[in-house]
Design goal:
Aspartate Aminotransferase, domain 2
Amino acid sequence: MTQYKNKLSSNDEIKSQFPIFDKNEIVYLDSAASSQKPFSVIESINEVYANNYANIHRGVYKLSQTATDMHENAREIVKKFINASSVKEIIFVRGATEAINLVASSVAEMNVSPGDEIILSRLEHHSNIVPWQIMAKKNKAVIKVAEADENGDVSFESIFKNVTSKTKIISITHISNAIGSILPVKDICKEAKSRGILTLIDGCQAAPLLEVDVQDIDCDFYVFSGHKTYGPTGIGVLYGRENILAEAPPYQGGGDMIDKVTFEETTYAGLPSKFEAGTPNIVGAIGLGSALKWMQDIGINNIYEHSKKVINEGINILEDIDGLTIIGKPKHRGGVISFTYKDIHSHDLGTLLNSYNIAVRTGHHCAQPTMQRYNVSSTVRASVGYYNNKEDFEALAEGILKVSKVFENV
């Protein structure tokens, strides 16, 4: 197995942990969409398929038991990573989207009645809007929106001025995927709990960057995706308080989530199995566990400080470009910078940047209400991972100026 250093002193050493940079001369600034994978994660996936693969939980033979132990060890890693109180509170899902759908479909069935209210923020990803709209329509509930200010901040006050006696759920992002705003989730969750309001935090952008402690945040649910946390696609995590999940009905039916089945009646397994119907993404969960362990070995605070440094350098570089406008200036920013440039459409800018081997995301970023708030239809988004540095933003700036000259000559 490839040897690697956990404490890396230079960007070259950091990038050396990611094989994609050996094969591609690319400035990769799209980690908010999906992060690249270190050797240790790739090797853990190969190791399972090559030497330890079998279906889990029901096999009495050694290979199945080994795979089961590896899968459940990954659950233990997730528990420690977010400081959950029990592995029963860790549900493996396909991604954060499925996690939010699960809560909206299952938990809401017990808690939301006609006329009740769900509060979302203006900065939500569509995955934290559409499931609630579906549920609200079904249950005749009302969705209320906490607005963002001109800087892109959603305040504690903005949330709670919408709260009434009918408010049952507050579901908000930890970090905006579109403009990078970090929301005061701890303050919001603690106040919501004092009022008997359930809270869900979309942690897709936060889990790869911040130290997440669900007990300290005091949320009822926290969700994140594996592919953004240096792990594989097709795997994600729903954290939910044990007492709430224990009372909620299953999200899906099938194998492994049952206790006893007859044609007259079925009883269900305990947590977490009740919410994990069918054969799970065994290798995905193990790969996610490897990714989180890699992050812990690096140090979450080291990852955050590195990202903060690179983002601040990136802002300074981009702000010097005439005609470039950064969307949002939040008090606390995650690893995202979203911008427009002159009157060049974001798709055109992103396409031409690709010709210089610069990868950025363009469009509305599955956050159309955010775009509407800042009167843009789309932006260019540059987002960072642990492998990025100041030179990447210098290359981006140089690429933008090259694109500008292309348009000047048209």
